[in-house]
Amino acid sequence: MQALELTGPIALAVLFGALLHAGWNALIKSGQDKQLDTALIHSLGVFVALPVLLVAGPPDRAAWPYIALTTVVHLAYYIALAGAYKHGDLGLTYPIMRGCAPLLVALGSHSFIGESLSLQAWGGIAAICMGVLAIGLSRGALPGREAQRGTALRYAFSNAAIIALYTVVDGIGVRASNNALSYVSTLFLLDGIPYMALVLWQRGPRRGEALRYMARRWPVALGGTLASVSSYGIALWAMTHAPVAVVAALRETSVLFAALIGTFFLREKFGWQRATGTLVLLGGVLLLRFG
């Protein structure tokens, strides 16, 4: 088995994937209905994944138990995501979900995959987590009732654990598949529709209005779908060459890219807290790359 190492080209590929991840999340952020946009982007993954799968072929048989497990875990992810976005602002819940997950991934990959990280790598992961939280939460707490905010936080922290779980499962599964393209296309073929069904069920009598919104929005959402599939595909490919925890942490630099997109295109204030978080995050990236 080849040695797992975060080389310069792999790091650059993961950072590009993080930029793509930030792009489709910025698309959600700019939309009128964040939950519907999220569902639409993921459900359109079926139409992107199917032709890719026809070309790449199915994953190896050894990967299918992990695909089955991650599909179930992703459904739990979508349920928690819907709950977080229902009770809390994207700017509060998203950074918590993404910022807490890498440390949990590191613990999980050590326990279940047996990956050993250097002290510098652990420091880099911790720094990235702190930087992500500082950048993402710089706009302050969710306005409104404390009970609603507490519910949103419970969903967000629960989803951080779920994200860590499916990341570890996918890290093992993509290595078993021997083809990252086959694995990620199979995953997107299976896991997008359940969340769409959940969202439409939640809309109840407003389902028709939701369908009309998506009919107008799908051309823009398709770009988000391509970015989402490409972003996770790059991450899974990187996990076949570098430690899962390192890739997972580096991928969460997407929060920095999202902050920059918000500053330059959505006219959001960057501020001292985001600047401090950026420095901490970049320090973590350097520790991961050279540690």
Can I get a quick summary?
The chain has one domain.
Helix content: over 70%
Poorly predicted sequence stretches spanning 5 or more consecutive residues: none
Mean pLDDT: 86
What is the percentage of strand-forming residues? under 5%
Order of helices and strands: HHHHHHHHHHHH
What number of domains? 1
Report the span from N to C terminus: 21 Å
User: Number of DSSP helices?
Assistant: 12
Note the overall shape.
Answer: globular
How is this structure best described in words?
The protein is mainly α and 291 residues long. The chain has one domain (8-290). Helices cover 82% and strands 0% of the residues. It is built from 12 helices and no strands. It has helices at residues 8-30, 34-43, 45-56, 64-87, 90-112, 119-136, 146-177, 180-203, 207-239, 244-251, 254-265, 271-290. Helix 1 packs antiparallel against helix 9, helix 2 packs antiparallel against helix 8 (180-203) and helix 8 runs antiparallel to helix 9. It is globular, with a radius of gyration of 18 Å. The mean pLDDT is 86.
What topology emerges from the helices and strands here?
Blueprint lengths: L7 H23 L3 H10 L1 H12 L7 H24 L2 H23 L6 H18 L9 H32 L2 H24 L3 H33 L4 H8 L2 H12 L5 H20 L1
Helix pairs in contact: 1-2, 1-9, 1-11, 2-8, 2-9, 3-8, 4-7, 4-8, 5-6, 5-7, 5-10, 6-10, 6-12, 7-8, 8-9
Which terms summarize this structure?
291 residues, 12 helices, mainly alpha
